[in-house]
């Protein structure tokens, strides 16, 4: 679905975009894995996409006293990307929002690229656009169907749990898994309500009323 969304992006501005900004943070290490990712994304389009592409480097404030040229020269991966885009790039300072010249200079570079291209914009393949739209509609329909199935299963499980649950008054369970593996979500599904308060780094369980007839204590690591 992500690939379809990326490929469909150029179809949202027919007859095609004048420029494609390839956004890359200057703090990144453009190693072989990163380059493969860039190539896979750009290969979703025709080879002509590179003629209409400009590298937009973000986090220019991270450079300090170093120039962007020095940063590019220090990383072979960045050199490859910049060369692939016809040596067209622009640096964006993420901290200085008052510098209006950043936007003006970027637009000027886009216009210069546009004027230098034989075709003013990247041509949209209408047949391919129709295929992508059909695939996305089919995927959305399948997703809605899956959601309905999951909701129905949850209702059935809840009914079974409430009607046939074990009369044990004190159940202790430990959820073990990697960070972001879904421990909190699993605990909430077992409770059939949101009991785990989640943050990026940790989660904790709401206190259980000691006077409740049934108590469940969860730890998640």
TrEMBL record:
Coiled-coil residues: 129-159
Gene3D superfamilies listed in its UniProt record: P-loop containing nucleotide triphosphate hydrolases
Family matches, as Pfam families: AIG1
GO terms assigned for molecular function: GTP binding
AIG1-type G domain span: 5-135
Keyword terms of this UniProt record: Coiled coil, GTP-binding, Nucleotide-binding
Domain of life: Eukaryota
Similarity-based family: Belongs to the TRAFAC class TrmE-Era-EngA-EngB-Septin-like GTPase superfamily. AIG1/Toc34/Toc159-like paraseptin GTPase family. IAN subfamily.
Name the record gives this protein: AIG1-type G domain-containing protein
């Amino acid at each position: 679905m992500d690939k379809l969304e990326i490929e469909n992006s150029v179809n949202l501005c027919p007859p095609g975009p004048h420029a494609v900004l390839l956004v890359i943070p200057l703090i990144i290490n453009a190693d072989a894995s990163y380059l493969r990712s860039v190539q896979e994304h750009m290969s979703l389009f025709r080879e002509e996409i590179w003629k209409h592409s400009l590298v937009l480097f973000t986090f220019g404030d991270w450079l300090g006293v170093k120039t962007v040229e020095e940063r590019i020269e220090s990383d072979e991966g960045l050199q490859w990307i910049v060369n692939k885009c016809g040596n067209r790039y622009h640096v964006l300072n993420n901290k200085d929002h008052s510098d209006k010249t950043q936007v003006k200079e970027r637009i000027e570079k886009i216009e210069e690229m546009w004027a230098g291209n034989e075709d003013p914009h990247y041509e949209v393949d209408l047949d391919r656009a129709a295929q992508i739209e059909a695939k996305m509609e089919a995927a959305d329909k399948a997703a809605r169907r899956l959601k309905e199935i999951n909701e129905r299963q949850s209702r059935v499980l809840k009914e079974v749990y409430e009607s046939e649950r074990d009369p044990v008054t004190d159940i202790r369970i430990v959820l073990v898994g990697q960070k972001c593996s879904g421990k909190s979500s699993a605990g909430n599904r077992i409770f059939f309500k949101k009991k785990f308060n989640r943050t990026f780094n940790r989660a904790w369980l709401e206190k259980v009323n000691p006077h409740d007839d049934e108590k469940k204590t969860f730890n998640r690591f």
